[in-house]
């Protein structure tokens, strides 16, 4: 049995019998006026964070969500669109598509603004999306891409890149791990399907995105997720897994490489009112400016003693350079 088949079987069972806590979050991330998330959707929230960010969702964007789960994030996306077919949900598991469809009927009863027709559910594969080129403003996946092995991951990211419009956003939440995992963990299909043993280091995760062509990467959150311990898993050491929320933007690739925001800031504290590097970055005195890692490195290389560059916080919420 392939690891993809093991994944499909696991989530077929989770669709038929909700498995609370299959991943780490079971409560709605967003509580918005007039939005009520049915309990069954919360119980089937098989993700490790949120891909719903209000700043991505202005002006009725066309949205794509891959791996529908119980429909919770599809419902949350619909809140910002409210148009027929404004949100496309894709899943390869028939039972999950049916469960999501059933849950939307409940959501209609609990939310007077919502109609099931706002969501267009499609049978499809993340490696071959049933979606037109350059047709999506915001694409999202939650705790899915970490399951894929290297070649499949590359293909899945390429598919997301293909369907996004220019400057469109791919918003994701996935487990990551900075420690090495042994082959027994890596090759355990069930642990991979459970969003554990496929976790990549953040640098490798970002490289997979920029290699496909995404010119801007934002790391928006980094949180504790799971521990793999020797008593319960085939490992002789504790392995700490985190989850990150990331946006990859289909911007043109800069000549000097991608802009990757990991939560760094630059603070100028010299004798003038501001510092201008004549490369598009103006630092007002004692006002932190969010900078990408590339700009942080360039400012740091100037050798000035009146510019402070913070460490990565792995939390970037917009603004700043670039």
Task: Report on the architecture of this protein.
With 322 residues, the protein is an alpha/beta fold. The chain is built from 9 helices and 13 strands. It has helices at 3-16, 39-43, 72-79, 94-110, 150-163, 183-186, 189-193, 202-212, 293-300, and strands at 63-66, 87-91, 119-123, 136-142, 164-176, 216-228, 239-249, 259-261, 264-268, 274-276, 282-284, 289-291, 307-309. The strands form 3 sheets. The protein has an 8-stranded mixed beta sheet with strand order 3-2-1-4-5-7-6-8, with helices on both faces. Strands 12-9-13 form a 3-stranded antiparallel beta sheet. Helix 3 (72-79) links the parallel strand 1 (63-66) and strand 2.
Order of helices and strands: HHEHEHEEHEHHHEEEEEEEHE
Beta content comes to: 15-25%
| Helix/sheet category | alpha/beta
Task: Give helix % range.
Answer: 25-40%
Q: What is the makeup of the main sheet?
A: 8 strands, mixed
Widest sheet: strand ordering = 3-2-1-4-5-7-6-8
* Number of discrete helical segments: 9
* Count of strand segments: 13
Averaged pLDDT, please?
Answer: 91
Q: pLDDT below 50 for ≥5 consecutive residues: which ranges?
A: none
C-alpha geometry = globular
Cα-atom radius of gyration: 21 Å
Cα end-to-end separation = 46 Å
